[in-house]
TrEMBL record:
<dbReference type="Pfam" id="PF00378">
    <property type="entry name" value="ECH_1"/>
</dbReference>
<protein>
    <submittedName>
        <fullName>Enoyl-CoA hydratase</fullName>
    </submittedName>
</protein>
<dbReference type="InterPro" id="IPR001753">
    <property type="entry name" value="Enoyl-CoA_hydra/iso"/>
</dbReference>
<comment type="similarity">
    <text>Belongs to the enoyl-CoA hydratase/isomerase family.</text>
</comment>
<dbReference type="InterPro" id="IPR029045">
    <property type="entry name" value="ClpP/crotonase-like_dom_sf"/>
</dbReference>
Length: 265
């Protein structure tokens, strides 16, 4: 496996499947991994035929986090400013890549089958949907060596699960199994280990059925509504819907939906 690419990609009828592929290193995020991942992400963004991106992993770990042994891709100045700038611009581009995942107006799904740690959890938090197998677990080990998960870990976890559960994982240095993660709101669903990959892919194909314009507008509107006040959030959803309702396909779809009300299907 050492000579294989650190990340594999394939397409399945409109779904781009990206697989972390360093099982012997527990899928630690190397410079090569992040370079290949960013290329795959931009290909997904720029290819209209690709509607959903699925992130999965090979081996007994989903991801052990950043590859601590290979370094961050450049020398870091031993000053507070240098460290902050390395978080922002170094670390093999994690900040830039994870931000782009949130900005792309298409759904990205993480299928987490086992341990998801540190930078791997930060990657998963940047996705729109997180599915966990029953055997999955989640943790931020950074507290064990006296720092924070600062590649958007604190901010995204707090935004997703609230300060209550962010304290549990980050200040409390606690692990969460799949069921606890579901209670926290960290994952959307917990699925059986057997058949997990097939179930995750089936969910992606379900998402693919949605209108692309609606999906993009929803992604933006939901993020904006979470960040602004109630009145402004109402303006956001009205503004988004005014554009969607001018889509030529809207009238045909609403008429078809009305005809189907009350049917057994």
């Amino acid at each position: 496996m050492a000579d294989e690419p650190h990340l594999l990609t394939r397409e399945d009828d409109g779904v781009l499947i990206v697989s972390l592929n360093r099982p012997e290193k527990l899928n630690a995020l190397s410079g090569e991994t992040m370079q290949l991942f960013e290329a795959a992400l931009l290909h997904f963004r720029d290819t209209d035929a690709l509607r959903v991106m699925l992130i999965r992993a090979n081996g007994r770990y989903f991801c052990a986090g950043a590859d601590m042994r290979s370094g961050s891709g450049g020398a870091t100045k031993r000053t507070a400013t240098g460290i902050r700038e390395n978080h922002r611009t170094g670390l093999h581009g994690m900040h830039r890549i994870y931000d782009e995942m949130e900005h792309i107006e298409k759904p990205i799904v993480a299928a987490i089958h086992s341990a998801c740690v540190g930078g791997g959890l930060e990657m998963a938090l940047s996705c729109d949907f997180r599915l966990a197998a029953k055997g999955a677990s989640f943790s931020f080990p950074e507290g064990l060596f006296g720092v924070l998960p600062a590649s958007n870990g604190v901010s995204r976890l707090t935004r997703t699960c609230g300060p209550h559960w962010a304290r549990w994982l980050i200040m409390g240095n606690q692990k969460a199994d799949a069921d606890k993660a579901h209670i926290m709101g960290l994952v959307h669903d917990v699925l059986p280990d057997d058949g997990f990959d097939d179930a995750a892919l089936a969910f992606c194909h379900h998402l693919k059925k949605s209108d692309a314009e609606q999906m993009g507008a929803a992604k933006i509107a939901i993020d904006m509504a979470a960040e602004v006040g109630r009145d402004t959030a109402r303006h956001v959803e009205r503004m988004a819907n005014s554009a969607l309702m001018l889509n030529p396909a809207y009238q045909a779809r609403i008429e078809q939906y009305i005809k189907g009300i009350g049917s057994k299907e």
